[in-house]
Structure formats: C-alpha cells, structure tokens
Amino acid sequence: MISITVEEYNGERRKLEVPVDMGLSLMEVLKAYEYDIQATCGGMALCATCHIEVLEGADKLPESNDSELATLDTLPDVDINSRLSCQLRPDDHMDGLVIRIKALQDS
C-alpha cells in the first residue's frame, strides 16, 4: 500500500491508501473512493474526464504516452503538471503523490 493525497477544492487534503498489487489505474482508485469521475471512455485516454493536476511528486511518474498527450492537448486548462489518471498505475514510486482532480473542478 502507498499513500496518495487528493487536495479538495476548499484546500483540505484527503489521504488515500492505495494498493499497488491489484493492477488498478489511479482513475479506478479514485472512483473506488467515490470521487465523481465520469470515465466516459473507460480509461482509454480519449475523454479527459479523469484529468488531474499533480501538485507534488510529478518526478515520480512515468512519462506520458502519445495518446495521453494528444488528449491533454485538447483541454483549455492543461499545464505541465496535467495527467490523465486512467494512464497512471500506482506503484511504490508514487508514494506521497499529491493531486487535484481537475475534471471535477471544471464541471
């Protein structure tokens, strides 16, 4: 298990315990914690409804693939810390990651 923190829009932070041995994407973990992520495309990096901003620990993440970059490029509020949570598989290197769910903020 690792800890990933989600910063809520009121500034409060919620620490999530995340399993690394189940093969889940970060999007699936967030949905399991009942965050209202639509995941319209089912995790195929096509819809960006799982857009997150990495506040701390971006250097711990693997590089974005071409599909993720193409989808992020369609968003008006993308920045260097933007990722699609469907494309991230939690592993031991991500312990301590801090994110904000942009897709919910933009709704």
UniProtKB/TrEMBL annotation:
Keyword list, A-Z: 2Fe-2S, Iron, Iron-sulfur, Metal-binding
UniProt entry tagged with the keyword Iron: yes
Reported cofactor(s): [2Fe-2S] cluster
GO biological process annotation, one example: P450-containing electron transport chain
Pfam families for this protein: Fer2
Keyword Iron tagged: yes
GO molecular function: 2 iron, 2 sulfur cluster binding; electron transfer activity; metal ion binding
Residue ranges constituting the 2Fe-2S ferredoxin-type domain according to the UniProt record: 1-105
Record family assignment: Belongs to the adrenodoxin/putidaredoxin family.
Protein known as: (2Fe-2S)-binding protein
